[in-house]
């Protein structure tokens, strides 16, 4: 299976699949424990149906008034008593049309909160689900692409309500009512022509729109591409500058935009076919009905008023159909968008809590790796038969060349990934038997690369403990040797750190991360090159705080600078994913192995 394949969201699916997505909206339209919303949906539905009857009915009043005017004898003034009947008919026509607008607005008023509720619920559910998905998924996905899937999915819900439920659906209902009315009031031939033209019209629209869809799809693809390129390039703003690659980036973007433009032009020009064909069918139908009506009038089977009524009704039915091509395409697109969003919701997180997984609660902090084998990709083993034990409260250092798999150990302990073989135990319990949430609560980390939220320094530190008091925050900031720096800033703890924390220096970011980890006060602390970005003076002063922090808890210290880990209870030398040796500083030096060699080298430097 190619990389990342299992996470691909379906782009093109059968209609039945799309309809299934649509019906997944039902629980939001008819939310279980929200009787108020149910009532709103129900009334909105009734109003929609009633509105169609009224719309079809209105032209009959006008038709009747035309006949009344034609047959009128002796009426000289419309407001005379004989004319009042005609006035009533005309008022009926205008009044009913006005009422139909009132009804449609009332429906909008009733239904809008339901629609909004549906959008918000689905958006929140998707967002929450994305956070449940595992690290691997997020490393493989483009964040910009993901947020667009949600954004489009939400928009599609609104669109489907608006068009399918309140536009196309009611129009078809209107056609059915009109057909029956023509049949009953005039003759079945009118019903037949009306329905046949509309059916033909719909068929033609669907077929031609389907043909045009490939241009449209192309357009969307290019649009997404251009967008992803733009976002990626803007995120890497600094890198672009380092390499003076502005022109390269711009031409890449322009290339994507050119593709979009080409597809957009094809899409627009092919629209003519649809418009011309639609207009032909619509007017042909109308002409056929008018000719038939004229003949019926000659035969004395129909009045001029009826001819008026038929025209008005048909105009009314045709009017919303004008946008059928657009609506069909958008509905299809909306169904696809929605299906993509639901596909996201359906993705199973790679790392899942086992059935019956229990919260771990308070831990002493014993950590044990037993014959752990691990790979990110099946064809490339990363950890090979790694075993070691850390007793509660011990400080264990992991050293080794770059790429040896040191940071991988911490990702496994956090259970961002599941291992291929062996087991990882915390307090003697397999971490797969505990909930991920409770496991992560007892581990704290200063990661190798700190990324901060685009918010204030205070927010970023207190992220470890929502609701932490200012004095708690300042205490850990002091321990991390960053309080004085923050206090000297014009905005102090309210200073914004910029996107990903880029407005802070590497060392400042790292100290924010240390403060944050200290605030979490975990039973197990992982320091992954926690002081690598600091000068040796700052490093020394932080070292004390870190050692103090490590004293009463289990800590796993990953370090390149070996001088910082001399006093560790145990040192693990890792190479190519294998534990090469384990021992104390003195013991390993005596062994004259990998650690001794690394130590020699650093002494020379
Ligand atoms: N998400 C990933 N997918 C595939 N391979 C990965 C992934 N993350 C890390 N690797 C690979 O796993 C190996 C071990 O990575 P790890 O980050 O554990 O190294 P490390 O010992 O911490 O190195 P350093 O000292 O440079 O931080 C590396 O060769 C790396 O390329
Ligand atoms: Mg690392």
Any overview of this molecule?
With 605 residues, this protein is an alpha/beta fold. It folds into 2 domains: 7-346, ABC transporter transmembrane region fold (Up-down Bundle); 367-604, Rossmann fold. 63% of the residues lie in helices and 10% in strands. It has 21 helices and 10 strands. The chain has a 6-stranded mixed β-sheet with strand order 6-7-8-3-9-10. A 4-stranded antiparallel β-sheet has the order 2-1-4-5. Helix 4 runs antiparallel to helix 6 (143-185), helix 10 (271-298) runs antiparallel to helix 11 (304-321) and helix 16 packs across helix 18 (506-520). The radius of gyration is 36 Å and the shape is elongated. The structure holds adenosine-5'-triphosphate and magnesium ion. The site of magnesium ion has 4 residues, from helix 13.
Number of strands: 10
- The CATH homologous superfamily of the largest domain corresponds to ABC transporter type 1, transmembrane domain
Domain count, please report it: 2
Rounded mean pLDDT score: 88
How many helices? The count is: 21
